[in-house]
Structure formats: structure tokens, C-alpha cells
Amino acid sequence: MEQEFYRGLAQRVRAIAATADPFTRRRLLDLAKRYDSNGSAAGRGATERPLPAPRTTPTASSFSGPGEA
Question: What is the C-alpha separation between 64 and 42, in angstroms, rounded?
């Protein structure tokens, strides 16, 4: 049953890719391939990018005072 679910998703993604621009089409077709592989953990881990490091704001002491430039 799970395989049927992922195959259905892959078909829907391919239908959307047919009307997309080339960059988006390539990404959607890659997604459809992952769905075809039944969403296995091995297939997902190889294509996902790591999350970027969170942005931090400088401490208040590094800001200049109201009259300083």
C-alpha cells in the first residue's frame, strides 16, 4: 500500500514537471525518482543538503552609540 502511495505521488510530480521551467522540471523529476524508490532512507540522505548554520546577531556592545557613525 505504501508503494502505491509513493507511485501516485511520483505520477503527480511528473505531471506538474511537464509544465514547469527547465530548472524546476529537473528538480521535480529528481523528486519523482525518490518517490519511485519508495522513499527509502538511503535514497533521501544522499540528495538532501545540510541545513545552514543559524544566523546570530551581534551583541549589543558592538553597536555604535546614537551619535556615533
Answer: 50
Q: Which amino acid is at 54?
A: P
Supply the pTM of this predicted model: 0.52
CA–CA dist 36, 58 (Å, integer): 46
- Amino acid symbol at 55: R
C-alpha cell at 60: 549589543
50-59 burial: b if 16+ Cβ within 10 Å, else e: eeeeeeeeee
> Would you state the cell numbers that stand for residue 6, as one nine-digit string?
509513493
- Quickly state the pLDDT bin for 23 (edges 50, 70, 90): very high
Check residue 44 and give its pLDDT.
46
Q: How many CA atoms lie within 13 A of 63 on its CB side?
A: 7
- 42 contacts 34 by C-beta, under 8 angstroms: no
